[in-house]
Amino acid sequence: MKSALRRYQLKRDADLLDDAHKIVEWCTKHMTLSASTWASRQENSNSIFRFFWEISNVDRTRQFTCRTVSGTQKLHSISTFSSSPPAIRIRTLACYCDYCMVGLDFECAYKSHVSPWQIVTLYPDMEDDLHNEVTPNEPQFMVDYDDLTDLVDIGDVFAVIAGEDNAEGVEYYLLQCNCTKSKLLNSVIDDYGIDYSRDDMIIKGTYFVQIPSRAKRYLAFERFHFDKTSIQFSHLVIGTKLHMTSVMLKGKERFQLQICDHERLLNVIRNRC
Ligand SMILES: [Zn+2]
Q1: For residue 44, what is the DSSP state?
Q2: What is the value of pTM for the model shown?
Q3: CB atoms < 10 A from the CB of 266, how many?
Q4: 177 CA from centroid of ligand 1 (Å)
């Protein structure tokens, strides 16, 4: 499709195709077969039937100029993911299996050759653009045993209370949601080897792990095995929509959680026990 568009644009009398609407219109006219032509060709060969559609209800009021993600020309799947930290998900191949079509790509039927989604953080193009960063929602904390997990959307950073005497010696874990609250239809084992039973109410995400930092105003984190999904019991969620500021330090991704948010999480834990 990209080379067809390019060839057309190089023609002397070509109309300028400089936005999504014009491209969808052009592709529909020149790159799709009518249903009858397609049906007649189907008899002799395996023709491909292409569809083009324009998604027009995109909110473009929030501007964020970011650095280009390298290798995007090779990618067949890109999706929005989170606003804080600003991130997209990428996948080299597209998959249309029953699971991927409804967002349950962890169960992908073609796992063996379609690689999982990868999360890519978006960094501002210039330091000046920092203040233009997408304004995320307000963080939410649990004050009572309400259903805070209902508020966790894909891409949100959420906190779960850590079990006593955990190996990491932490009071809570931070994860980025990649599958919202749901009830398990079967027993499963997550990528960390932990068992969950049928009918458990769970939420899924990828971990952030705290790293040492001398900063006084924030705690520093980095992504931990972002290709591995952890399952958590939904009632253990104590905070969500946490703001994580992303920074690149010596080629390494770091994320900062404000001390005030950290303290609010500790408060929730204290009040719960
Ligand atoms: Zn799939």
Answers
A1: T
A2: 0.75
A3: 13
A4: 19
Compute, in angstroms, the gap from residue 102 CA to the centroid of ligand 1. Answer: 10
d(CA 64, CA 134): 6
Helix axis angle, 2-9 relative to 20-30, nearest 10°?
A: 100
Residue 4 CA to ligand 1 center (angstroms) comes to 28
Listed by start position, the domains of the chain span 1-56, 140-272
Ligand 1 center to 68 CA (angstroms):
27
Ligand 1: centre distance to CA 80 (Å): 18
How far, in Å, from the CA of 262 to the mean position of ligand 1?
Answer: 37
- Mean pLDDT to the nearest integer, 186-199: 94
Residue by residue, DSSP assigns 177-246 as: EEEEEEE-SS-EE-TTS-EE-TT-EEEEEEEEEEE----SSEEEEEEE-TTS-EEEEGGGEEEES---EE
* CA 95 / ligand 1 centre spacing (Å): 5
Q: What tens digit of pLDDT does each residue of 215-241 get?
A: 999 999 999 987 889 999 999 999 999
